[in-house]
Specification:
about 140 residues, mainly beta, 5-stranded antiparallel sheet, 4-stranded antiparallel sheet, 1 helix, 13 strands, about 10% helix, globular
């Protein structure tokens, strides 16, 4: 299983006495390191993730600020484990899904016309356990 990691450069500086000038450089260096750390998720994003080597999402529109995906799930088709950046979603055609994430596994009946938003999803995976095809629009901020 791939997991999220924090990607940062860590420098250990050990000396018996540090001059004020060196202290300033160390403080600046530490501030730079803190602000350049970022989340590196080793999981695929929703476009890269599929289901049993089949594509489930396609790009509808993409700009320098936004990416819009249309994701389709016939019965017994899911979306392998993936992560999401901040996004807004809209259900074009609802369905019954088994959703597994860090909170556990649950079954959810998602109605047509349902909208949702999330700041970040570390990981989840879904499976259409209903008898109808479901479709979603996912709008991701870049």
């Amino acid at each position: 299983m791939k997991t999220k990691s924090i990607s940062c450069i860590f420098i250990a500086y050990k000396t018996p006495m540090v001059s004020i000038e060196h202290s300033r450089y160390l403080i600046v260096l530490l501030i730079c390191l803190v602000f350049t750390c970022k989340h590196n998720n080793q999981l695929p994003d929703p476009l890269e993730a599929g289901w049993q080597d089949e594509v489930v999402c396609e790009i509808v529109e993409e700009t320098d600020k936004l990416r819009v995906l249309k994701c389709s799930f016939p019965p017994s088709v899911g979306h392998e484990r993936h992560y999401h950046k901040a996004h807004i979603g809209y259900t074009l055609a609802g369905g019954i899904f088994r959703i597994t994430d860090s909170a556990g596994t649950r079954e959810v009946d998602i109605p047509t016309g349902y909208s949702f938003s999330n700041d970040y999803i570390e990981w989840h995976e879904v499976l259409n356990i209903g008898t109808t095809s479901a479709e979603f629009l996912i709008m991701e901020y870049k």
